[in-house]
Amino acid sequence: MFYIGNHLITSPYLLAPMAGVSEMPYRVIALEHGAGLATTELISAKGLFHQNLRTLQYLTYNKEKEIPYSLQLFGGEEQAMAKAAALAVEAGAHIVDINMGCPVKKVTQTGAGSALMCDPKRAANLVKAMRMATDDKTPITVKIRTGWDADSINCIEMGKALQDAGCAAIAMHARTRAQGYSGNADWLWIRQLKEALQIPVIGNGDVRSPDDAKRMQKETNCDGVMIGRAALGNPWIFLALNGKIPHHIIPAKERIPLILRHFEEHIAFHTMLDPKGELRAIRSFRAHLVWYSHGIHSASQFREQVMQLEDKEQILEAILHFFSKAGSSNDTSTDNEADSIDYRQAFG
Q: What residue spans define the domains of the chain?
């Protein structure tokens, strides 16, 4: 357990904010399975001003189960981020997180995301401005990387500048921007950041199993572990981490009730503000089905099938047929969902 501002985070295992994944239905599922916090996917500060349909969807949260509700913003302009922070709090956010780690070019070329790693002073000024805009009543947290590239690793300098600016907690993906999501995460930097700061430090990167999460805690002494790819189609990992089940690999048949629930809630979420949004919801849920089928024999045929379906009843039938008949396997070496969906580019 640890605190972010005055908010007690009861489990150290957190769901990473992931574009196209960390929507309200999956955040709630993760929290119900034991995630200590589930932050929204990254939201453009300037986009928040326009309040279009997609932005309103981003802001939708479950007031009973998302306590605290953590909302992630990205942007590089002080005034815009300050105004967006105030709007986020008006929308219900209990914690406002700043994405200073996204490596995607369309984000960094605007001076946002991991581009802020190149300018700790500007990054610190964003935190100060957002604290002022929210009357210093809402914790401002930040997600960073180790640096821009191997020749400019500056996470310690960055962390100290952010802490001095009043940042309430820092999550660090232990790769540089140049690495993206390739290569190995260097957990040594998480340890050094934790040793250098007094505020909570949350580690992220190369956590593929509960054992990895426990090992990260032991090796780095971090306050929390942020779990991204390992939680895709696998909210049971949080139950395993909190000792509620013995293993995070769930037999195929036992996945069915949660998949069906997630599918229904995903459609309801996307049609809540847009009655014509069912087709978009069906198409976007395909990625979740890819992840839910990971590790199951003959999953590639199932994925190929559902990628062609656009009718709700046909997808329900396909889910029931596949997961009720399939066996599960821990051997995923020939069945990697990354071959079907390149989701890494969307991660912040």
A: 2-241, 252-329
Strand 43-44 and strand 13-15: the pairing is unpaired
pTM of the model: 0.91
Burial degree of 274 (CB within 10 A; 0-12, 13-18, 19+)? middle
pLDDT digits (tens, 9 = 90+) for 240-255: 999 999 888 899 999 9
Query: Which CATH architecture fits 252-329?
Result: Orthogonal Bundle (1.10)
Helices (H), 165-251: 188-196, 210-220, 236-241
How big is the CA angle at 255 (ends 254 and 259), to the nearest 5 degrees?
145
Helix (H, G, I), strand (E, B) or coil at 289: helix
Residues 6 or more apart whose CB falls under 8 angstroms from that of 254 comprise none
pLDDT in tens, 10-28: 999 999 999 989 999 999 9
CATH classification (class only), 2-241: alpha beta
**Per-position b or e across 118-136, b if 16+ CB within 10 A of its CB:** bebeebbbbbbbbbebbee
Tokens of residue 43, six digits? 């939201």
Known catalytic residues are: 102
